[in-house]
Specification:
By secondary structure, this protein is of the alpha+beta class. The chain is about 30% helix and about 40% strand. A hairpin with a 2-residue loop joins strand 5 and strand 6.
Length: about 140
């Protein structure tokens, strides 16, 4: 069994930027020399997340953002704001709920995803960020 770590950088916008990273994750798998296995996709931090969706304008630009705003609004008075003097409490709660890592299988070098399924990075912080995405690839 072989384990390799590949990374890539992305720039994100604040307040629920949802970025399709499927191609970058597939490239990491392609450049690993591992044919069959799993890839754990991870963002180090507590205001970002990794998930999957059908990456289309209605769902990405409206439905998911509106849903998250209903259950974890940015303007809510989170106790985190008073503790640290910033206003990214919602980002921390969203990251807690959606999680900072997801694992995906791949076979013959190709990610196993549904027809309309893409891997996304979710930026929940209150400011633009430069993020490093880590792909821990395990297999043979």
């Amino acid at each position: 069994m072989t384990v390799k770590l590949k990374t890539f950088e992305i720039k994100s916008n604040p307040f629920c930027d949802l970025i399709d990273i499927t191609t970058q994750v597939q490239n990491a798998v392609n450049n690993s020399d591992i044919t069959n296995g799993i890839v754990n996709v991870h963002v180090a931090g507590s205001t970002g997340a990794i998930s999957t969706i059908e990456y289309e304008p209605g769902l990405v630009q409206n439905d998911i953002k509106e849903f998250l705003e209903k259950i974890m609004p940015y303007k809510y008075d989170y106790k985190h704001h008073r503790t640290w003097g910033d206003h990214n409490g919602s980002g921390h709660v969203r990251s807690f709920l959606i999680k900072t890592s997801e694992t995906f299988p791949f076979h013959n070098g190709k990610l196993i995803l549904g027809t309309w399924q893409q891997i996304i990075f979710c930026e929940f912080d209150e400011k633009p960020r430069h993020r490093t995405i880590y792909c821990q690839i395990i297999g043979e």
